[in-house]
User: Fold Dihydroorotase from Sinisalibacter aestuarii.
Amino acid sequence: MTTITFTNARLIDPETGTETPGSLTVENGVILGRDLAPAGEVVECGGKCLAPGIVDIGVKVGEPGERHKESFRTAGAAAAAGGVTTMVTRPDTTPAIDTPEVLDFVTRRAREVAPVRVHSMAALTKGRAGREMVEIGFLMDAGAVAFTDCDHVVTDAKVFSRALSYARQLGALVMAHPQEPVLTHGAAVTSGKFASLRGLPAVSPMAERMGLERDMALVEMTGARYHADNLSTAVALPVLERAKAAGLDVTAGVNIHHLTLNELDVGDYRTFFKLKPPLRSEEDRMAMVEAVASGLIDVISSMHTPQDEESKRLPFEEAASGAVALETLLPAALRLVHAGAITLPVLWRALSMNPARRVGLPGGTLATGAPADLVLFDPDAPFVLNRFTLHSKSKNTPFDEARMQGKVLGTWVGGTRVFG
Assistant:
């Protein structure tokens, strides 16, 4: 019997919405209770924050096909160092995760080498090509927790509606990246004065709203469970609000970069800031922060997308999109706390509890009986990020050389320490 008591901690509980001093005891990989008599191994927290481990939806791992960019071993190490105890990985691999056999391969690889929990999403259509839906039932039996074509929009509304109908019958969650694909094609930045001055191909924020409007109409028609993985614009929020008010089974997430950066950070064509969707205006960024604080946006994710040096050392228009973020998710998110825009329990609701519940996983709380997946962190510890110290194989972070606050002191998965 393995027992650990965390003493003198600031307990961050998103379920109760509280931040209280106290102790937490875990036994045999689950939480036993708070403020019990110390037993077993004692971890002195020194007044630092103890919270449920982060559940990160939408992590890209390069296995199979792009292991040179990221492997389950390196992604798992980065996750543990960043306080992420569960990674929900994307199917945009080579080949795509669209059969039980490929899903079984990545599940076994993750189990063998990753120190954190790993659950996989599967593609919604074969090859993520948007023409023929996958065998959703077989993939669910093989362990898929959700279905998505990632940033490939299913342009054929009939195909998408059939997939949504089939998913509803099986209770499957469908995730989508709402954008109007024709308007978005080839765009590198958000339209506006900055894009014009830089001479870069741009897309209007309205493309996101148009994509979400279509998806909400199809969800209303089919009754499917739906999650918009990466909203980024203020004009899309009223669409989401109406869908929730109408009782549709809809949730939405936002990328940490769209909460902490804006279009001006691209500066002189800095490709580490090229993301998909592109960085938006400061007004959009503030609207997304307010939506997280109010609960309209349910989930914050890293949208971890490793890219090698060769794919980023190109003209901005040609460079690959995406950034690594497993290790920067927590300190970047703490910028919102330090700015007074959000509280720690509300932040952890979006980082841990809501994503766990949406994909049907236990955890995300400090309740008795919950998995002992925990992160101990100092929210005020300052540091300057050096991208070459990151555990990820790829080093494409927009926060290189940025001043940040918030260091992970320890990470536990099922009561076993995996970092610190």
User: Anything to note?
Assistant: Residues 53-362+383-402 form a domain with the TIM Barrel fold (CATH 3.20.20.140). The chain has one domain: 53-362+383-402.
